[in-house]
Structure formats: C-alpha cells, structure tokens
Specification:
Layout: H1 2-10, H2 15-20, H3 38-114
Length: about 120
C-alpha cells in the first residue's frame, strides 16, 4: 500500500493534464546521441499517467474488496453467534420442559399410590 501511495505522490498530474500538456525540453531527459520525438515523449508521459491512474483504481478496487470481505466476515460471525444463542435457548427450553414433565409424572405416580391405584411401586 505504501508503494502505491509513493507512486501516486510522484505523479501529481491528472489524466487531462497528461493529454493536454505538451512535453517541454525542461522536463524531458535528453541524451547526447539521440533525442526522442515530441510525439514519442507525449505518448510515454500519457501512458505513464494512464498506468498510474490504473494503479490508483486497482488499489481502490482491492481496498473495496478487502472492506467487503471484512464486512462479510463480521456478518458471518454475528450469524454464527445468533445460531449458537438460538440453539442454546432451545436446549434450555427442552431441559425445562423435560423437568416439568418429570415433576408432573412423579406427582401423578405419588397421587396414584396415595389412592391405591398402582399395583406396583417403582
């Protein structure tokens, strides 16, 4: 990410500036043997600006993808936590239901024994 920020900081020209500014002798490196044509320099400058702009766009896209992945990860964790909570609550309700059924059954057995309705004891 730091590399992309450095590259972005080096080129402060916009795409419009890249296509509209002509290359001047002051911003063109010259060599003693050959000198690139103005058109060639314009193309290089334009291409460099397009590449830098593309790099910025790709960086923004990658950051957006990362943000979406992090958001999805958070949502998946929240969903997992909700599932655990629902399952835990359902299990607690089942435990309470079985406890109540056991108490009712024991009460019915005791009542039947008190009335002499049972032939056997458990």
């Amino acid at each position: 990410m730091a590399d992309t920020d450095e590259a972005s900081a080096k080129c402060t020209l916009t795409v419009a500036e890249c296509t509209s500014k002509p290359a001047t002798a002051s911003n063109v490196a010259t060599s003693s043997t050959s000198r690139p044509s103005k058109e060639s320099l314009k193309k290089r400058k334009r291409n460099r600006c397009y590449e830098e702009e593309l790099l910025k766009l790709e960086t923004r896209r990658a950051q957006a993808e990362l943000d979406l992945l992090l958001q999805r990860q958070q949502q998946e964790k929240q969903l997992h936590d909700l599932r655990i909570k629902v399952i835990t609550e359902a299990a607690e309700q089942e435990r309470q239901l079985f406890t109540l059924k056991k108490e009712l059954l024991n009460s019915n057995i005791k009542s039947a024994m008190d009335q002499g309705l049972l032939l056997f004891e458990s």
